[in-house]
Amino acid sequence: MHLVVSPLKVRKQPLSAPATINGKEIFDLIRDDLVLLETEFERDTVSRVPVITEIGEYLRHGGGKRIRPALLLLAAKLFDYRGRGAVRLAAVVEIIHTATLVHDDIIDDAKTRRGRPAANTQWGNSKCVLAGDWLYMQAFKIAVEERNFRILDTLIELTQQMVEGELLQMETLGKLITRDDYFDLIYRKTACLFSVCMRLGAILGGATSAEEAALAKYGHDLGMAFQIVDDVLDLTASEGVLGKPVASDLREGKATMAVIHSLERCTGDERNRIETVLRQRAFNGVTHADILEILQRYGSLEAASSCAARYAKSARELICSFPDSEIKRALLWAPEFVVAREK
Fold it and tell me: Of the candidates 134, 153, 129, which has an alpha carbon nearest to the alpha carbon of residue 143?
């Protein structure tokens, strides 16, 4: 599913250079709100059942860039929104994101997450499934307090898309998929949440329908770039940087963009080697280095990175029509941060 945006009916401003603001400055713009977010997140993950609180606390301290709630806060500030709803909804999207990570680790039988044991290795799958479910319900309980049906509709559609994405991915594990299949999967699993974060901020800020659509598309394109880069890093970064085993996607039977690019060009023997890893979900007789050699031979890693850069460029262009401000410059820089990151 790809969003289509009609032309904006707002005054165009010159494109500000991303170099005018850096990553630290982006988060400094919303520093106070991010502090409030952490307090909200901590309070909202407390349950009368101690094990839920323990798991919630463990997950909250697991790190993470908080990029999704940051996007929501920035989108709201773009319209000079000053209410408390932005922090509340920022906590909602971070709780939903956390719940998806818990379920993903169980489905993928992951042992580590961000450089430390995954929650399911500490509490077991059964407790973590239920804790993830509780987090989803808690997110909606908080969202209901906004008394805004558009917000609830947006969040319901989001969770449906994400669950469908996870199920679709399970159906394709160990199999070859097309580029369109891949783009649909990463939209559902990642870009949809980025898009919703921007849309929720726009709704709170009283944006016009055209402005809301532009920000939703910005989130979509930023999320697509983020996931494509994530998938490239999974193949190329070190385990110490990733905080999880290298080439986890291949070990789990997932064909990502660079792999699909090579499969469209490689020889029969090379194709068999890639298929063997995907099918067996292990490097048995075929090494990670063997796969990297194939990907490098056909320029597949560069092709995937270039695709991410195009999505990032598209995201930046969608912000050009908004009046100039520090928040606008932050949103212009965010795509550069996403494509240049190393983990």
Answer: 153
